[in-house]
Structures are given as structure tokens and as C-alpha cells.
Amino acid sequence: KGWVTEAAGNNWFVADGTVGFGPEYIHDGTYSAMIGYTFDDNAVKLRWLYSPSITVGTGGTWDFWTYYINYTSGSGLWPTDIYYVFYKGTFTERTGTAIAANTTILEFWDGEVLVANDPVGYGNNFYESMVSVDLSAIAGQTGVLAFVYSYNDGYQMAIDDVVIGAPTGGIPEPTGYEVYRAGAKIADVTGPTNVTYQDLGFADGLNTYYVRAVYPTGSSITSIPATATIDANPKPGYLIGTGGTSATLSWFQPYKNPPMWYAYYDVNESTTTIDMMDVAAPKRRVKFASNAGYYYPATIDSISAIFYDWDEGNWGGANTFNIRIQAAGGYAPGGGMLPDTTLFEALNLTATHLQEYKVAVVPPVTRTSRGWAVEVEALSATTGNPGNLAGPSPDADVNSYFYYTTEASYNYYMVLSGGTPAEYAIMSHIISSDPPAIAKSGWATAGQFNSRTTSVAGSLGNDEKIEGIPYYDKRTKTIPAVKSVKAIDYYRIYRNGSPIGTSTTLNYEDTSVTVTGDYTYAVTAHYANPVGESDFSNEIVLNVQGGGLEAPAPITTSVVTGNVRFDWPDVAGATSYDVYSSATPYGTFALLTNVTVSEYTYTPTATKMFFQFVSKNSTKESPKTIEVKRSMTK
To answer: Has this prediction a pTM greater than 0.85?
Structure first.
């Protein structure tokens, strides 16, 4: 309360999750202070948000949380500049000298410099760590503290949970801390310097935490709450299987993707028909980013391009091209762009009309935390041939495989030979896409995948159809859910909605089907700390043949020294036999014993008894034999 900003439109304002850019811009509670990246009056470059007048104490700090952006994969690089200042004037100065005399710049965040110093994280801070500004240089002075946003077409920004203060002296060190989740204490942490805690008892969804410091005289007030969104029980995926005499199943651990082709298109980053119709500019580029659905590190073992000739020939022989993988150079300190880095290239390849050219990347390229671009360079610079994704029509106005839907999304569509559709024509094949760590046990891995070793030209297979993914606007940035470190105990396999077994590997064979038919299978993951079961994986339907064991038959009986002996032929596949008995033919047959040979001797305890027999092994058992009656009298 008490913070002031100018009244002009498009300035600092109170964001509540609906006004502004969404709830992710609020660190805690209901509101935050926010500013957009465009203004009604762009002539005023500096926008102030300042505190009430305060006198700064000795050892004071200015602590706050910020949602600060320089770069997103969907919208690219837009460096954001912000000043953190102390001002002791009256806002009536008329000269720059007078304003400077009353202003102390405590910190200045130059977006370009932050990006250059942090090429992986780009200087972004999505409420990931608190900012603390030292106020010792202005101790004893009276004035206001101000956030001064410098308009330079950067990103939007938010400020939340601001605390300004200084120690008053005489406060002892804490003896420990109390950690709370959802208002209830969950742990005591001993010692003043132990300031971390790992919670294994979290709930699925949003978890809210705060901490109290413990002193000899009591506990402190609560800290500023922190929240974490946890996918507590992530499910396995990509379940596949084959039927037949048994059902053989395999799947991938949560957040692990199988090898597949990926395509991503961002109108701000890619060079295609949308922003380049000039045939004399032969390079066509598509940028890949994790919005496409994979996880880092991502290993690319193949790239591909699809070609199209309007005359349905081969461009009059002008059909050679280069294809390469490039890493964007990024923003250079002081302005401009750093040069791209070529990670792989294949030169002087020959394109064929309506074919996909798949190029093996040897050795495979691994990107640990940043995206990449696949570039196709047509070697006929004057004609831009061979034509692919960016090739214009003969009238230089439209593209036969550029498809525009309701003016809201961008997709590309071509039909290859054989009628196979391909919505994108420049792609990457990723063979490993490692998830965040969720398993403590070493068994929960999907194994290694073989890389391609040769380049091939041919049609895209039906199982390799690429789905279009819309580009992201920089105004719709969202934060993905946090993935927690958890232990997978095992996987549970379901058939027709009922559990049939478990596995500590990523495969399972169901040999217990006794009746031939179609069966629906799904898999869940079971977790420890806390205990939980995931939702079902995708379901698959398999036709499985009934493979039950035959019942023991025929049963022969004989009397040996007053006992009854039963004999039958060995049953193929059986490892033992259950023997059931009942005093009446319509009563309940109870399990009497289990034998591992094809005979059983019964010592009479009644004058009349009825028997049934079952052959079995570790996974199957036969139906019971027909009733066998034996009188105990001679």
C-alpha cells in the first residue's frame, strides 16, 4: 500500500490474474504490480513506481520478487531494462542536473548485458529467486524507492512481495526453523545455517509453504509464502503392444518420449513464405523449441526436408541443396547479433520432386538447454530452387502448400507421392529426450536407441506424420508445472480395467488370458514418498488367444492298502496340480492339497468323497476336471 505511479495509460497497474497477463505474474496472494511492454505515449521512456517517503536505516535492504523476461523460445529476444533508484527530490525539478543530484541509481538491469552474461538462462527470473538490493549507500537519508521501467520494446514485467527494512540490533540467531505446508507444520530444521528443506509429502497440484524462525523466546512471524505446483503422480505414456498367444506390452516412463519426428514453426523466428517470398533468397529456416513437446537434453540423429516443383519435374536440373543444423548466436553485448554456429551440415545433396530427403546426423547432435534451427539452402541462388517450404507459386503470390486457418494459426500442408500428407516440410528426428529426474531407482530407464547411419530419400511413412503446432505470442507466456523428484516403486498393468500384474521394468507379458478375444490394456505408475498411483497411460486393444492349460484327464483310481490312488497323464505346460474335495457333489469343493506329480494318494476319512483336479503353472491354470466320485467301502 502507498506505492504511487503516474496516471497516464499503459503504465504500472495492479494485476489480479485477470487484468494483465495471467495469474503466473502474481508471486503470492491476490495482486502484483505490473507494467506492459507497450505504452500509449512512447515519448515518455521512463515509467516510475515509487514507495511512500521513508528514512533508510543502517544495514537496510530492499527485497522483492520479480517476473522479469529477456527471452522466450516462442517470442525470441526482447531485452528488458529496469532501474532501481532512490529519489529524495520533490518531482518539481526542471533540469537534468537537479534530477540527478536527487537520484541514486542503486542497480540497473541492462537486458542485453544480462543475456550476454547468462547465455543459458538469458537473465530471466520467473519468480525463481528473491532480489535483494543493498541500501547501505543511502543509510540515514529520507526519500522514496522506485522501480523505473525503461521503455525499449522489452517484455512485460511484474513486481510482488516488496519488503524494505533494516535490523534493529540485539536479535539473537535462530536456533532453527519450522516449515509449514498448507498451514500445518511439517518439519523442524535444526541450526541457524540450515536453510533448505526437501518435502516428500507434497500434494498433487498447488502446494503453499512458509517458514518461521525459532528463537529461545519463541517463533517469528511467517515468511512470505512460496508455492510449487507439483505433478505428484505423473503417468507413463506411449504404451504399445502386440497380441497373439500372449499380450506383449511396452511403454515409456513419465516425461520420457520415444524417438520421433518433430516440427515447430514460429513466425517470428523462422524464414518461410510468411515473411520471405523472394526466390533470390534461397535459405529457408525453421527454428525448433521445447514448445514442440520434447525435453532437454534432446539428441537429433536425423533431419529432413520435403521438396516440391510446380512443374512436377526436378527444377530443370537446378535441384541441389545444402542442409544444416545451426545454433542461434544470440544477442551481442552492446547490440547486434552474434554469428550462428553450425553444428552439422550435409552439402551438395540432390532433391527430387515430392520426396522427403532424410539426412543422418553423424555423430548425433545433442542440445542440452537451448533450441536449434534446421536450414535448407537452395544452391540455385537466382531461382531459389529446389523449392520446398518457402517456394512461391509461379505468380509469386501464393504457395500451394501454405494453409491458413481462421486467421489464427499457421500450418503447412503437402501431399507426397502415395497420398501421404505432411503438414511441415522441414523436420528433426529426436532419439533421446530425457525428462526431469523422477525415479530414484536405476531400472526406470527406456534404454538406448540406435542412431541412423545413412541418408535416405523416400516418402514419409504414415506412422511419421507430423502434426502442426501453432506459434506462441510473447504476450501469452506461461510457466510449466514444476516436476518433483520422486521414487517410482513399480508399474501396475490393467486388463479391461482390472489389475493383473506389476513390473519394475518397462515391459510386461500377459500370459493369463484363457478365452480368445479383444482386451483393453493400460499401465499406471506407483510412487513412494508420498504413496500414490498415476492416472492410466493411453489404452490399447489387443486380440489375445486363450492359451489355458488342459484339465487333467483321464483320471483313473485304484485302492492301495486301504488308500485311494488317483493317476492321470502329465499335462503339457503344467508344473503342479491342485486337488479339491467335497463330501457332496453339489457342495463347495475346497482345496485339499497341491502336488507336483501326476498322481495323488488319499487316506480316507469318510465313507464317500468327491474330487476335482486342476493343472497349473506360474501364470495359468486349467478348468477343474469333471467330478470324480469314489466310495470308501469295498
So the answer is: no
